[in-house]
Amino acid sequence: VQLQASGGGLAQAGDSLRLSCVASGLTFSSYDMGWIRQAPGKAREFVAAINWSAGATKYADSVKGRFTISRDVVNNTVYLQMNSLSLEDTAVYYCVARRIYYTLGGIDYDYWGQGTQVTVSS
Questions:
Q1: For 80-103, what is each residue's pLDDT tens digit?
Q2: Using CA atoms, how far apart are residues 63 and 73, in angstroms rounded to an integer?
Q3: Does residue 73 come out as left (phi exceeding 0), alpha (psi in the -120 to 50 range) or beta?
Q4: What is the 3-state secondary structure (H, E, C) of the chain?
Q5: Which of 51, 72, 81, 93 is buried deepest, with most CB atoms within 10 A?
C-alpha cells in the first residue's frame, strides 16, 4: 500500500488549502481513508475520514464545518479541502488508510503516507 500526500504549504489565517492523497495497492472498496495530523509537541489527532465505498464521512469537532473530505474513485485520490484555516491547524498532515472498521474515527490506521506540512500564520 502506498499513500502519496501533497498540497501542504504556507497559508495565512482565513485562507484555504487542499491536500491530496493518491493511493495504490489496496482494494478500495474494503478500505476507509482519512487524514490525521500532528502539531509540534502534541499527540496525533484525527481530522477526517471517508469510507471509500459508501462515501460516509466523519470529522473532528475542531474542523467540522471548515474541512471537507472527498474521494475521486477514478483517480484513487482522497482530498481534504481546508477552509478558514487557523493557527491551530498548523501541523503535519498524514494520509491514512485501513480496512473498514466499526468507526471512521480514531488514529488506529494501518497505513500512513509520508506527511505534508501545513503552516498557518497570522
A1: 999 999 999 999 999 999 998 888
A2: 24
A3: alpha
A4: CEEEEECCEEEECCCCEEEEEEEECCCHHHEEEEEEEECCCCCCEEEEEEECCCCCEEECCCCCCCEEEEEECCCCEEEEEECCCCHHHCEEEEEEEEECCCCCCCCCCCEECCCEEEEEEC
A5: 93
AA identity, residue 8: G
Q: Kindly report, residue by residue over 18-51, the tens digit of the pLDDT.
A: 999 999 998 888 899 999 999 999 999 999 999 9
* 117: amino acid identity, one letter: Q
Tell me how far apart the alpha carbons of residues 21 and 75 are, in angstroms, rounded to a whole number.
Answer: 10
